[in-house]
Design a protein that fits this description.
With about 90 residues, the chain is an alpha+beta fold. Helix content is about 35%, strand content about 25%. It is built from three helices and three strands. It has a three-stranded antiparallel β-sheet with strand order 1-2-3, with no helix packed on it. The longest helix has 16 residues, at about 40-55. It is elongated.
Length: about 90
């Protein structure tokens, strides 16, 4: 896994997981409140469908996801306390 952030609130993450976990990973990202782009949804759907239609042993193959997440820039967040933080 690799990650990075910039002052404009952009976070980049690269992580890998076994393909058989793709539905769980997709669900966790949505449950966490990330708003994926249309193409992000399409790509995850294709990965999940492709994994389901392959032989069972393909589930141990490694899938790689590169996420770019836009958050509030530091200067915009200012002294605003985010919900659930202290």
């Amino acid at each position: 896994m690799s990650r990075g952030a910039n002052d404009m609130g952009r976070i980049s993450m690269l992580f890998e997981f076994e393909r058989r976990s793709c539905v769980d990973i997709y669900g966790l990202l949505i449950a966490a409140g990330l708003e994926l782009s249309h193409s992000g949804h399409i790509r995850f759907t294709e990965l999940c469908q492709c994994t389901r239609s392959q032989p069972p042993d393909c589930g141990v193959e490694i899938a790689s996801v590169d996420l770019d997440i836009q958050t509030l820039p530091v200067e915009m967040a200012g002294g605003v306390q985010m919900p659930g933080t202290m």
